[in-house]
Fold each of these.
Amino acid sequence: MLSSISNKVLSGQRLTREDAISLFKSNDLFTIGRLAGYVAEKKNSKNAYFIVNRHINPTNICINRCKFCAFSCSKGEEGAYELTIEEIIGKLKPSAINCQPFSEVHIVGGLHPDLQFEYYLKMLSAIKREFPSIAIKAFTAVEIDYMSKIAGLSLEETLIRLKESGLDLMPGGGAEIFAESVRSRLCPEKITGSRWLEIHEVAHKVGIKTNATMLYGHLESLEDRVEHLLKLRDLQDKTGGFQAFIPLSYHPKNTEIGGYYSSGIDDLKTIAISRLMLDNFHHIKAYWIMLGEKVSQVALLFGADDIDGTVIEEKITHSAGAMSGEGMTKEELVYLIKKAGKNPVERDAFYNPI
Amino acid sequence: MKRIDSDTGLNLFKNSDLLELGEMADNVRKCLHPNDIVTFIVDRNINYTNICINKCRFCAFYRDADSPDAYVLSNDDIFRKIEETIALGGTQILLQGGIHPELNIDYYVGLLREIKGCYSINVHGFSPPEIFYLANRHHLTIRETLLILREAGLDSIPGGGAEILSDRVREVLSPKKIKSSQWLKVMEEAHNIGMRTTATMMFGSVEEPEDIIEHLDAIRKLQDKTGGFTAFIPWSFQPGNTELQTSKINTATAVDYLRILAFSRIYLDNIKNIQASWVTQGLKMAQIALRFGANDFGSTMIEENVVRAAGVNYTVSKEDIIQAIKDVGFKAVQRDTYYNFIKEF
């Protein structure tokens, strides 16, 4: 049934919307996995990448309060917190957790109603001053949109100011599912899908590489997923500014929507189909925090070439019932990759091997 | 499909591509279970004691008799657990414990009689090390011991204690536990008197691929002879809190689990059912396992103490299991001990 798709993949032709829908509807897990593995190996040989990184969530106070989110709080609510810049710097000191220096810090947080644009600029420059060798991957498109509003600056100016203060890369969060019919039920306060794409386009234009994500397994249809992938592929054709695509499996605990975890099979298929559809993305990441250490490892045989990193401390997915640990050591990451028959490569934030 | 011999098997196990192996296993599973049905059982693990003289190096559950958290459940505690199980629609209890030096056959006979006098439930109980110990203690043959226990109410025997059926490995893992041939002997005698049993394998500790093949070969040979195994259940060594614990990074990974599972489905051509182990792998991996050879989701457990003692705790309800099975495109069917269908959900 998938033979025409197989032929296209093996001859390097681009897959269509209809192809993607056939793949999602197909039960032929092994053919899909093999095709995705073929593409992954063509792009990255047997390499599977990881990074020594750390996550920091400066605040969980957020004015958006998306219905799938179990992390956010309103100001004054029990459990609400905000970190000072000194606290953030403290978390980045390798001595604090007895580990080798980080290559990258990943910073995302809520839309805090009171923090000024200057706070973010100071955060970036303080990190750069203290740790010049750590790449800063920070602020989703949602936060960038918010900053441009509180600063009264255009998107381009906002991003340039952030870049000048030390922003190296942007993460791919906040994309969720672009389809408005789903988005309006999932996260009505959040920026639209087209705004998310616009922000990434501007970021690419000013020389900031970014990632892209898709949150799946909640209210969306297969068609919505395919549409999402196609929009990312189109933008990547235009700018080439995306580094990696990261499918994010929905976690139902403590959220307003509830429902179920995505299945292990759906996780593998979504990774594989993303690899097949996004022919212009170099990397597909099986983010172990979301998928769990076990499914992420298996995903390396279904088209993924990156498993993310040490992370150290993860709050957002764990608020919604993540069953993974909060951090992994470098040795554990290397072991998982080797046992999957891949070649572990420690990378920096820009996918240069270390 | 033609039976594969042990040399071909070893080569396949060591060198095949995992997706190819998985697809082969998936095809075997489809032939044996053509209606897209995945079964599960509602039962409860009741561990009547954690006192054990075997002290296996891979185990985090056992205690010495004088340890502060050593226990033997009272019969009343066991009955309460059975009543809760029946209230949840349960059809079986899995009754297993340590090798307790003070408990004699009268204890077992009394307990089984009382259970059977009060409750209509299948007692799946006492793995081969427990049976073997009782036989020795009372100078009975294995067959005599089994007949006494069956007469008192024992229905079927779980496949625990097999670990790896290779004495080289057992010498390292569990020197005080019964040998490979003794485990097989208990199962053979049980099958000979018409009792059904399962078979297990605990992998991911110190064994080599050759040991895995030796294990599967022994099970397959006995099954050729008796046909008494209902299912095979592989699970991975959980190192937490055990003497064998070195560090997390030497244990079986998800990819290893799928390889063992798929290979078992292919090699054990005379055993109808292969169980996925959500207890050691989590629900998502158990779902993936359904495409790598498994056709059964095991038990709802209700409580599980042995794996949990090693620091692994996936909490799952009956509804979670049904949902997990349906989410990957199978029909979820509750079964009894003998794999008869009870109810489709």
Note: The interface with chain A takes residues 18-20, 22-23, 26, 248-249, 253-258, 281-288, 290-291, 314, 323-324, 327-329 of chain B (CB under 8 Å).
Amino acid sequence: MSDRVAIAVGLLLLGGAPLGAQDSLAVLRRMEARLDSLTADARDSSSAAAAARITDTVSAGAIRVATTARFVPVLTIAVARAWDTVLVEFGAVVQAIDTLPVIAFGSGESPVPGPSAVPELARSFARTATAAIWQRQDAALVRWASTFAPTGGVSASALAELARQMAATPARPNGACLDGDPGACALALGLGVGLDTLSEWYAPDAWPGLADRYSRGVTGADATARDRCAAGDSTACRTFLLPDRLTPPAGIFGRHYLLELALDLGGPGAIGRLCTVGSGSIEARLEAASRVPIGTLLAAWSDSVRAAMPGTPAPPPAVAMLSVAWCVLLLGLALGVRQWR
Amino acid sequence: MFLALLRLQWREGRLALAVLGAAGIALPLLSLRGATGAAGPWEAWELLRASAAWSAWYPLLALAAALALSAGAWAADHRSRHVYALTLPVARWRYLLLRYSAGAILLLAVGAVLWLGGTLATVPVAIPPLLHAYPGGLAFRFCLAAFSAYTILFALHGLTPRAARLLVAALLLLVLVAALADLLALGVRPLDLTVDALLGPFSPLAVFHGPWMLIDV
């Protein structure tokens, strides 16, 4: 019996090896097929995702927006409106521009905005386009105003911050400017500054603080000069505090607000006029944009900033009266109840 | 009778008042600690920065004072189920007015302490030319804000159970409507609208909006 069993086991083992090999091969083939299927799925889904991401370009004028098909209807209206806004603002300046950098909008998952979102989208595209067009303008203008995109208005709290910043900055022209002297405001804004910008803007005792506050990374000789200036070495300050390293006394925001004011006064086409006064001074450009003399523009700027100075934290009489009136009303209501709890 | 109620309310809330008073003195002093105003041309930056950094604490103090004093104005009566008040030969409205006035006087005291703290903090500081110290203005805003919050809370504490239930129901309804509006993407945000209305320029809490800087331009 045992011999027969041994022979049977032997035969099984002999036949078992090819059987096992056949199974492994089948498993391998199944796995390969599965892998192929998974790869194909992944390819399909990634191409579907890609298709859901960027498939269409909506354009109007020089504005191009890369987006998915779902967003096209709403973006078509928004981009057209944005271009109309840019045309009104810049006028002939943008006619020469073929294309602006492509704006990517909307991912596969994000919901499609409704028609109520069109005005905000149009404003956003117009701002992006304006910023891109701005960067193509005259180098002196771009250097003076840095990155600028008109926002159509400046809040009272932003102006109050500007007034605080000017009051806290120990720059020579700031005090007179906040007292209402347009000439000092021009200097604070960097208009008509002479060759020695550092001395015109800041007294020597403020120089170490300026160097200390310079936040961009500097290395080597510059770093040494900055450290020596911060320690009180005026010669090092002259070396380190070059005009492009100086914070304007009214800050970049002060300049942006002057531009906003000029565009607001100038109405349609103001940016176009600002940009097309070829190689003109900043003052000439601002006059062209606003259609008022620079003195008037500066006076308006100064008046607005002074009006926005926060002053005492005591609430204005109207707010105080309203508050008292509410107190009287609510107390009256509370006293009028006849029932105890 | 007013003095008796004032004494009663003082006893009821003296611990809270002591804490509020200490905060009223400490906040301005802490906000300007180490400042002399004569440390150089950039000292104005530091003064404004410190003033701004600590400015959020003043409305919170006003709210805390209003909470403590409005609760103190009603606590004894709620505890005794108004038996003491009902035994007095005065009308309800007169009794409540006395209670309210006693709380308001204690609130004024906290405001006065804040003014004192602000004055003590700013007197030794040489304020730079374009800046000003406003201990009085800050204390005035504090008093008005605290009064507004105190009046609202005082009125809420005095609500009848039915009115309180109605108020809670209205709040729940508002939350429900807000959730529905969000689910249905109606584009309307009732909760935001309510908060805007509560803190808007014509609301009783409008006075909380605005600068709370001890030193400003």
Note: The two ends of chain B are 46 Å apart (CA to CA).
